[in-house]
Structure formats: structure tokens, C-alpha cells
Amino acid sequence: MRRRRHGNVALNKALLLYFTVCFVPSLVRSISVSSPAELHAIKGDTVTLSCTFTSTSPPTSRMSVDWSYRPQSGGLPRTFFYFASRAFPPSEGQFSDRIKWQGKPAHGDASISLINATLNDNGMYTCTVRNPPDVHGATTSHSVLTVTQAPSIRFSDATLLLAFILLPFALLTFFLIGRILCPKKQHSQSKTFRSPIEVTEG
């Protein structure tokens, strides 16, 4: 009997360990956030900082989103945008009047727009979503934004070669067309023109 009881206890412990290993991580990871790893923009563009999330619990008024920024030069990240039932865009600092809420929490979207991107905006942007009662209730995702100057107009070697070929060819074509049309015009005029002096026989 003792051996049978000992076997049952061992089996119960094994089953408990199995369920703990299989199901507890799924509860802990019940919310996940994703963002593109890299974003590229040209100075002056409006950039969409995308952030999407999935959660086992439907978003409620307790759900919150915050965005933080860490400069490319390094340093500590600082929060510049917050959402909790409504958006709280920055009223001062680097991003003042340049952030627009684009998110739709009911559709798992917590994105924002950065208006008039500058070279000073280069760095890492972190999106954090909290949606209680999910376990731990917070997951983050990072995107690195690279803003560059508008490319200057540069003519490649192929473009220059094409221009040097097409331009003389076009000029030559117009010249030949003019040569063909002009004699016909002169010939038609010679038929209609008569001299006041007429030569008669005898």
C-alpha cells in the first residue's frame, strides 16, 4: 500500500510539474508587443512609429501605452508620450506639437506619428503596453529610427551618356525634317508666282 501511495504521490507531482511548465508561461506571456526593428525617413517626413499588441484580455480603460526615446548618442530613455483612455502628447521639449496618436486599442494598435522628422530624432523608440489583468501586464518593443538628408540630384554616367546621344540625334532629326519640308514649300510658291513680264513667241 505504501508503495502504491508513494507511486501516486510521485505521479501527482509529475503531473503538477507538467502543467506548471506548459501553462504558466502561456499566462505570463499573455500579452505581446511588436514593432519594426528599423525605420528610415528623410528629413521633413511624417514617420509612423508602428506598435501592435495582442492580449488574452480585451483592452479596457485600464490599458495604457507609453512611448520613450533614447538618443542615438546614448543616455537614458525618457518618456515623451502617454495614453490612458485618451492621448497625452508632449507639450514641451523635443517632440512638442510633433506627436499624433494613431492607435486603435480595440484593434491592438498603439502606433503614433512623428511629424516633421529631423536629424535630432535619430535613436531608439520604445513602445510599452500594459493591459491588466494580464500577468505582469507590461511588454515592450523597440524600433531604431534613422533620419537622413534629402538626396541631392545627381546625374549618373548612364544618364549623361544617354543625354549626349539623344540630344544630337534629336537635333539632326529636326534638321533633316526641315530640309525635307522647305524645298516643297519653295516649289509650291514658284508655281503660284508669275512675273509681270511674259515672254511670247515671235
TrEMBL record:
Q: How does it sit in the membrane?
A: Single-pass type I membrane protein
Which Pfam families does the UniProt entry name for this protein? V-set
UniProt KW DNA repair keyword: no
- What compartments host this protein? Membrane
Ig-like domain mapped to chain residues:
25-146
Q: Does the keyword Nucleotide-binding apply?
A: no
Annotated keywords: Disulfide bond, Glycoprotein, Immunoglobulin domain, Membrane, Signal, Transmembrane, Transmembrane helix
Task: Tell me which positions the record assigns to the signal sequence.
Answer: 1-30
* Source domain of life: Eukaryota
Q: What are the transmembrane regions? A: 160-182
GO cellular component, alphabetical, reads: plasma membrane
Q: Under what name is this protein listed?
A: Ig-like domain-containing protein
> What species was this sequence derived from?
Mugilogobius chulae (yellowstripe goby)
